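Please go through this protein, sequence plus structure tokens, and consider how the sequence yields the tokens. Keep your notes short.
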Amino acid sequence: MHLERTKSVLEESLGMEYYSCHFEGSGGRLRQVPEDFVVEEITPEGVIMGEETRSLDRGEGAYTLALLKKKSRDLIPAINAIAKRLRASVSFAGIKDRRAVTYQLISVHAPAQQKDMPQGIEGISLRVLGRSKYPVEPGDLKGNRFTITIRSIQDGPLPQISDCWLLNYFGHQRFGTARPNTHKIGRLLIKRDYEGAVREFLAEPYPTEPAASRAARESLKSGWDLLKSIREFPPGLAYERHLMARLIRGQLSYEMALKALPATILRLFIDSYQSYLFNRALSLRAEEAISRRIGIGDYVSPMDLWGSPSRPIRCDSSNEERLRRMVSSGKAVVMMRVVGSRGVATTVEGDAYLSIMEEEGISQSDFRSILGMSFEGTLRPTLVRPIDFSSSIMEDDLNHGMRKAAVKFSLPKACYATVVLRELMRPEDPLSAGY
């Protein structure tokens, strides 16, 4: 691994401090049109959910399996719209990008045929695939395949990244795109600064958000007139308007008003802060050249053919040498905890987290019982490698005189395509580059 420091101020602020390989970046832009970013979910059986998928059956049962294709739609509102039309619960395995064309498996808790599938929901199409005894559960996927167009690239060949191990950062969209502040709200919640969290959520303007939203937030920040601002905030800022309404009508404390937001939104804020801490700890571990080094107390996971980690093994004196060989040969990967209320190993991982948490002014006990929720933390691979990476360069049909690159690769679940793309493109301003 040949570390190079990022030139992006945004990436530095998100803990994504390094590139993993020595490349000249291609430059370019993502997502000029939605079809430039295609995501196809890979099921636990290894079936790729895509335009050609016609059937998937898991035995007779109470659940209908369907292929959901969405274009330029957030997943949760799309799922809610489908559930409302069908009057049945709908579940899914993983959240997919909004600014993309995505394919994924969903389950409907009702018997349904193709004629029963709702029609006319903007940006959504559904195809019945089969039946199942069980619903699709969160995390019930092997990974995702990405087909991505990078437009207006520089002259020269595209870097070949297929043999590179990359630092497995949480990607840019984890923290928000137009407003990269979900981790900041999470930090304030962890510190029980509920007023600060509300003000950051409602009234902190960002230059990259739409002008109408930015103006409304600036007005609220300058005068904190909720009655005026609830009329000025665009309808699309539904959660912000809902929170303001609770503060106006109920004369609630900031803590109680926050509890009126959906638990999924509140959990997103804390998850984002945990992701930020992980990114910082991973960068620190990489600085010290120990992202692939293991010690007593570390966890190591063997990997399957898809690059997915299996059951973690705790390193001790009896298996240390064997695990070192597995990691060195690329058959296993060092894991690192996403910090939460559960203990961090007293190893290099623990040393990294302790120094960062001291700087942040928090402790692990702060992750217990936040707005009625607790966050224990999980294990995450420190490195990732794109599977079946391929690329080609051609004339850019949308930008005269320029070239574009078409890249295709797969990643295990919970890994971010933008982590691969940033290595290829090296953007100084990820947001203007379409991240």
User: Anything to note?
Assistant: The chain is about 30% helix and 20% strand. Residues 28 and 153 are 4 Å apart (CA to CA). Residues 4-35+149-164+392-425 form one domain.
